[in-house]
Amino acid sequence: MGKFGLAETHLTCGDCPIRHRAVCARCETEELAALEETKYYRDYEPGQTIVWGGDEMDFVASVVSGVATLSHTMEDGRRQMVGLLLPSDFLGRPGRRLAPYDVTAVSKLTLCCFRRAPFEDLLLSTPAINRRLLEMTLDELDAAREWMLILGRKTAREKIASLIAIVGRRDAALHMMRADGQVVFDLPLTREAMADYLGLTLETVSRQISALKREGVIRIEGNRHVTVPDFPRLMEETGDDTDGGLLS
Amino acid sequence: MGKFGLAETHLTCGDCPIRHRAVCARCETEELAALEETKYYRDYEPGQTIVWGGDEMDFVASVVSGVATLSHTMEDGRRQMVGLLLPSDFLGRPGRRLAPYDVTAVSKLTLCCFRRAPFEDLLLSTPAINRRLLEMTLDELDAAREWMLILGRKTAREKIASLIAIVGRRDAALHMMRADGQVVFDLPLTREAMADYLGLTLETVSRQISALKREGVIRIEGNRHVTVPDFPRLMEETGDDTDGGLLS
DNA sequence: CTGCGACTTTGATCGAAATCAAAACAGGTG
DNA sequence: CACCTGTTTTGATTTCGATCAAAGTCGCAG
Predict the structure, then answer these.
(1) Which helix (H) or strand (E) holds A144?
(2) Is the CB of residue A126 less than 8 Å from the CB of residue A96?
(3) In whole angstroms, what is the distance from residue B235 CA to residue B244 CA?
């Protein structure tokens, strides 16, 4: 929150319903206006690949709506998700043309794109955007490192609880928690995608979700719609320290 | 390599035998000179904790010599390494005072430290350093994401091969490969630290190293000194695509 | 409503790594 | 040199999650 005293002043970009975290009011200059003109939108269908690992990416983008994933795939088909992009998240690595992993839409997805060249020009002339991107990259790094703990040391049950807590917390922050303390949201991922996130098989994911359901930790209607009646109870299952992570 | 056209021009800092990747010749200004004056060195013994997770860190630093690790610890003692710092690596997160995980020396270690306040002042006034830090953070993020694939989807044997390949490649780049193609280096980690890196137990680490030794993929003298007679052969064991990773 | 395909759950069995336990091996010290 | 402590190796057994297999749902298109 405002590590450089800027974070509260995002600019809502043109017709986008979200706030672009990479480009904010403070950065408003002629260059930014020029950038606006290179902006374009792109829609993707569920399952569609946006970029293949190794491809050139000639743009950077913000997620306007929907969910996308970053994932590594090994030749034999084993897959590991390494990033999850929700609305307002940024896609692209300034200064690096080659995508190191696959980017895939897991739902209907709209991106707001900027061409690489003018964006990098803006980067050179506008230090504030550089600082913002450093901030955002540090956040991604924190998330990746928390994820490493999940992958390396947590049990299947703890992994599932952690994922539900992460998505639930992020959604709750957006949509407001319900007055009675229940947290209600839709899982944006299939069981298979959850498995790829957590380094499990989809059968194990399903079994652990069933177990948490059976024990009343969560409730689920129709495969995706989740209710967490008692969030602290869920947090106990994650194996994390009880404070729930003050880190970000 | 010179993503912003700067990377080749690091400044060797004062008496430090290493190059500080965060602070380079291009950044040379009065501010940098001021920063130099706040510089100080600190030595640590193997096993010594440099920062505890949650502590305030009032400095940033470069590793001059030795090896340090970043790791998460759960209350019940499970531990996961999330970062490995070798000479010339940078420690510290500009704009963030609280350390999110433990930093521990695993060998004799010397840090070259800068106080936080003047360093962040420099950051505000010197865009080139900002760009450099963004570069370095993106490298860390790439490393973390490759690590996630290792943790989530690789077998114990592939994990060990990957770790030896990573350390070997990094050392080989530094010390030069031997003419006959053999790669020779010292593992900077105990079996336990390797286990914490890879999300395994130390017994499994030991067994897999023994297996690779038995099959002639590696040779080891006295617990730490490793010889890889045929690097491509080792790479086959990592499960990675044969190109060995053009990513960094 | 009916039927189809994709997604999900559940069950039975297997196997890789964890755990428990002990022996062997450094490598430093008196 | 012999001892001592911490690290590493090896062995026996258990366990959690993977794998193989089948049945059950969901949600949609006709």
Answers:
(1) helix A127-153
(2) no
(3) 7
**Is A134's CB within 8 Å of B138's CB?**
no
Best CA proximity match to A166, nearest among A60, A77, A81: A81
Q: Among B54, B134, B147, select the one facing A130 at the smallest CB separation.
A: B134
Complex ipTM value: 0.89
Q: What is the pLDDT of residue A3?
A: 33
Report d(CA A27, CA A122) in Å as an integer: 9
- Give the ranges where B80-126 is alpha helix by DSSP (H): 116-125
From the CA of B191 to the C1' of D10: give the distance in Å: 15
CATH dotted code for A10-149? 2.60.120.10
Determine whether the interchain pair A144/B149 forms a contact, defined as Cβ–Cβ distance below 8 Å.
no
Tokens describing residue B79: 């531990």
Distance CA B213, CA B223 (A): 12
Task: Extract the residue ranges of chain B whose pLDDT is less than 70.
Answer: 1-19, 22-33, 173-177, 179, 242-248
Residues of B in contact with A72 (CB under 8 A): 145-146, 148-149, 153
| pLDDT tens digit sequence for A138-169 | 999 999 999 999 999 999 999 999 999 999 98
User: CA at B132, C1' at C16: how many angstroms apart?
Assistant: 43
A 105-144 residues with CB < 8 A to B: 123, 127, 130-131, 133-135, 137-138, 140-142, 144
Q: What is the mean pLDDT of residues A62-90?
A: 93
- If you average pLDDT over every residue of chain A, what do you get? 85
Nearest Cα of chain B lies from the Cα of A36 at a distance, in angstroms, of: 23
Decide yes or no: CATH 1.10.10.10 for domain A155-238: yes
Measured distance CA(B71)–CA(B103) in Å, rounded: 7
Of A32, A37, A93, A31, nearest in space to A61 by CA: A93
| Same fold across A10-149 and A155-238 | no
Q: Note whether B82 contacts A153, CB cutoff 8 Å.
A: no
The domain segmentation of chain A, as residue ranges, is: 10-149, 155-238
| Rounded percentage of chain A residues whose pLDDT exceeds 70 | 81
Compute how many other C-beta atoms are within 10 angstroms of the C-beta atom of residue A175: 11
Residues in Cβ contact with B42 at an 8 Å cutoff, skipping those fewer than 6 apart: B61, B110, B111, B113
